[in-house]
Design goal:
A: mainly alpha; ABC transporter involved in vitamin B12 uptake, BtuC; 13 helices; 2 strands; globular; B: mainly alpha; about 0% strand
Chain lengths: ~325, ~375
């Protein structure tokens, strides 16, 4: 494997890690506030569809992004309504949201575009195109001419869509919000001991709704990136379990932003390796392509099995808060 | 003291939630520009209008009884098994192995053998997530979902590389031997008008037997009592000497086994070979069925019947109203899960208030 191949592998690692990272941070805000959210998958899917559909109709990807985020936030509010206001089971609500998104996106896509549940391919300003940073080469032939440092800059650092850079900025931002602001302190407290927060005269319900809304916005970005950045259009079930992998990454990261970045990069690398090497021969045994495709899911189970140290979730997670009467 | 009479809790609230879910589904149909009442009429006619419709409705219902019971048993132990899809896929593998490699003399023996093989492989697929939940505390919801994806990849690999018939392009096994073919409804109930090609087969009676068996298990045996006790309060169960690890394992194994048994209906009874993606979402429908049926076998049976009708009626609907795609069923399923499961309190709270208001004044 030469240097350029490694760079290309790392380059697609970053691309594939981006939706995971955004969804993972989304889950982080929600779960740190004590609301389990297995509906990340559905919210991403809904955002992917609406961003692609609106971007296609208007020809402007930013309006698409807005629409996708709005769809995701609506589902978040539904989750909030079920799990905060009506104190329902958060897991069941998440499952319902996943199915709702899986069904509605295809039903609406079919009546809207009549292309078997997909949107037409997006071109030009209807999708997030790659940004070439100043001084970087864009064409592969030019990149191959450069020295190692230039290659790293041109191939790995430059040439991603704006959402990739935004997602990388969101990591320090989330860290700062969670650990350096009053809002973050309260958010973490409400996931550990909502009774104490309530006693201090702060609304548990409002804090949790705020967390769920942030989760919705970030899932919206993740979904929009899937449909308008990573690929060019929506196809049925395009989130392909990424929401669940993001949850596994969140557990792996023990609900901390920086570790979430590392965990998502790991899953992204796995995905990139699986995509690039369809058939790997190890000791004269050919590893089937299906195994490579299943690898992220297998790794998720291995991580959840706790072979990487014990992960302790926020203590009040999954429990509806009932004010004393 | 109960706030509501029991009949309101077990009948009125689920019924009310389902009606809300159907109204919401109707709103979706209206939103995409079709007439919801007309769509409803087409679905009811398609599902119950003739013997052909009934055959498919009961065929689908058979699948959903198995997966619904599977989710229900796990619910009693307060475990959320979303892995029905993968467990049923492995059950299909069990049926294929048993039917292809064992020379059965008669279909009755083949049915018993294939049911056992399906249950064993389904249970085996549930065993790893169960063990990880019991011993290492890994979240069973996420691990069972992951096992669905892994099962799908495994089945594709096996069907493409191992079981595919020489010279055939289709990723499916060879046709099972004639001795394993199950009698379908035209053979045992032809007088009711079932045609020769109806998919309904004797597995339907196995499903009913499974309902009875689950009822006996949960409410009439020591193990069932332990499962329910564990589900109500883990600490109390531990204090009573019930091992959480054992109950988690046993409940999940039974659950996985029931999911796996679904395969005798579609794989042995209808297709008579193992095809790719044989489960077709039935594992997920089980969640809605169990929630709607309040985890009781009778409720599961009725809910499975409703979803069977939705599936068959939905197929007719897609035929007559091409604007409505088949995924509309997934939407209805999601809304049923939402209203009967997550938004349960939305119906329950006002209902409780109503019954409190109606209650005769206490005789003090």
């Amino acid at each position: 494997m030469d240097f350029m191949t490694i760079l290309q592998l790392l380059d697609s690692t970053i691309r594939l890690a981006t939706p995971l990272l955004l969804a993972c941070i989304a889950g982080l805000f929600s779960e740190r506030a004590g609301i389990f959210d297995i509906g990340l998958e559905g919210k991403m899917l809904a955002a992917a569809f609406f961003s692609a559909a609106i971007a296609f109709s208007t020809g402007n990807v930013w309006i698409g992004l807005l629409a996708g985020t709005a769809a995701s936030v609506v589902l978040s509010l539904l989750h909030g309504l079920a799990s905060i206001t009506f104190r329902g089971n958060q897991l069941i609500s998440g499952v319902a949201i996943n199915f709702l998104a899986a069904g509605l996106t295809v039903v609406i896509a079919q009546t809207w575009f009549s292309q078997g549940g997909r949107t037409p391919p997006l071109t030009g300003a209807a999708r997030f195109n790659e940004i070439v940073l100043p001084g970087a080469a864009a064409r592969i032939r030019d990149i191959a001419q450069q020295g190692p440092l230039g290659q790293i800059y041109s191939e790995l650092i430059s040439g991603h869509s704006i959402l990739v850079y935004i997602s990388l900025l969101i990591v320090p931002l989330s860290w700062w919000v969670l650990y350096r602001t009053r809002f973050g302190l309260r958010l973490r407290a409400v996931g550990e001991n909502p009774g104490a927060v309530d006693t201090a005269g702060i609304s548990v319900v409002a804090l949790r709704y705020a967390a769920v809304m942030i989760c919705g916005v970030l899932c919206g970005l993740a979904g929009a990136y899937l449909a308008t950045g990573l690929s060019a259009g929506f196809v049925k079930d395009m989130s392909a379990g990424r929401g669940f992998i993001a949850l596994a990454a969140l557990i792996f990261a023990k609900w901390r932003p920086w570790y979430a970045l590392y965990a998502c990069l790991l899953f992204g690398l796995l995905d990139a390796v699986g995509n690039r090497f369809q058939n790997i021969e190890i000791f004269a045994v050919t590893v089937p392509v299906q195994f490579m495709q299943a690898l992220p899911y297998i790794l998720t189970v291995v991580i959840l099995a706790g072979f990487v140290g014990r992960a302790i979730p926020p203590r009040a997670g999954g429990e509806p808060y009932v004010k004393e009467r | 003291m109960d706030k509501m009479p029991r009949w309101a809790d077990v009948i009125l609230i689920p019924l009310f939630s389902v009606v809300l879910a159907l109204i919401a589904s109707g709103a979706v149909v209206a939103f995409i520009g079709e007439n919801p009442l007309e769509a409803m009429a087409i679905m009811v006619r398609g599902a119950f209008g003739n013997a052909y419709g009934w055959g498919y409705t009961l065929f689908y219902a058979t699948n959903f009884i198995f997966t619904g019971l599977a989710v229900a048993v796990a619910f009693h132990a307060r475990l959320f098994n979303i892995g029905g899809e993968g467990q049923a896929a492995l059950g299909g593998l069990g049926v294929a192995l048993a039917a292809l490699y064992i020379p059965w003399p008669h279909w009755t023996l083949a049915l018993i053998g294939c049911t056992l093989a399906a249950a064993i492989l389904g249970a085996a697929w549930a065993a790893i997530p169960a063990y990880l939940q019991a011993r290492r505390g890994s979240h069973i919801v996420i691990t069972t979902i992951m096992f669905n994806f892994i099962a799908a990849a495994l089945l594709v690999y096996l069907l493409v590389n191992v079981f595919r018939v020489e010279g055939s392009m289709a990723p499916e096994t060879a046709r099972f031997p004639a001795a394993t073919h199950l009698p379908n409804a035209s053979q045992f109930a032809g007088f009711l008008g079932f045609g020769r090609s109806t998919p309904l087969n004797v597995s339907f009676f196995v499903a009913i037997a499974a309902c009875v068996a689950v009822w006996l298990l949960i409410w009439r045996t020591r193990l069932g009592y332990e499962i329910r006790a564990f589900g109500h309060s883990e600490t109390a169960a531990v204090y009573a000497g019930i091992s959480p690890i054992r109950i988690t394992m046993v409940a999940m194994l039974i659950s996985g086994g029931l999911s796996g048994m679904m395969a005798i209906n579609g794989t042995q009874g209808e297709a008579e070979r193992l095809v790719i993606d044989a489960v077709q979402g039935a594992g997920f429908v089980g969640i809605a069925v169990a929630l709607m049926g309040r985890s009781h076998p009778i409720g599961v049976f009725l809910a499975a019947l409703l979803f069977g009708a939705l599936y068959q009626g939905g197929a007719e609907l897609e035929f007559e109203m091409p604007a409505i795609s088949r995924e509309m069923i997934v939407v209805i399923q999601a809304l049923v899960i939402l209203f009967t499961g997550a938004l349960d309190n939305m119906v329950r709270m006002p209902m409780e208030r109503l019954f409190l208001a109606l209650r005769p004044k206490a005789r003090s």
